């Protein structure tokens, strides 16, 4: 069963799970991110602005294999959203893969993500 709630981050993760099989869904990132948002995923360079974020995800998922996220979201006292996640999948060459990590998101008054960070570690599978 997929975990979903009503936060923008939960809806974003659910959309990202569809990106490998449905790359056109990445055009919907504007309903999750502010126009000037910043995304800093793991060791990648920060990406700023909706067009650059969309292109980053398009490149990232064009070479990804199957995957599925499972997560829990908490609203922190300072208003940020914290997501503890696990993603499991299969690479394009058939190898199993799994990662666990934490994302933090800052959301503006319009309910859009303005800053998203993620750190994860590979799990032995």
Automatic annotation (TrEMBL):
Domain SnoaL-like: 26-115
Stored InterPro entries: NTF2-like_dom_sf, SnoaL-like
SUPFAM superfamilies documented for this protein: NTF2-like
Classification via Pfam families: SnoaL_2 (PF12680)
Residue ranges that the Swiss-Prot or TrEMBL entry lists as coiled coil: none
Name of the featured protein: Nuclear transport factor 2 family protein
């Amino acid at each position: 069963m997929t975990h979903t709630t009503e936060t923008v981050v939960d809806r974003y993760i659910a959309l990202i799970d569809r990106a490998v099989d449905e790359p056109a869904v990445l055009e919907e990132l504007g309903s999750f991110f502010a126009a000037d948002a910043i995304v800093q995923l793991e060791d990648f360079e920060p990406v700023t602005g909706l067009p650059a974020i969309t292109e980053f995800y398009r490149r990232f998922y064009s070479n990804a294999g199957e995957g599925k996220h499972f997560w829990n979201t908490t609203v922190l006292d300072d208003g940020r959203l914290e997501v503890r996640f696990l993603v499991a999948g299969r690479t394009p060459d058939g190898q199993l893969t799994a990662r666990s990590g934490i994302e933090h998101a800052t959301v503006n008054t319009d309910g859009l993500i303005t800053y998203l960070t993620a750190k994860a570690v590979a799990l032995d599978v």
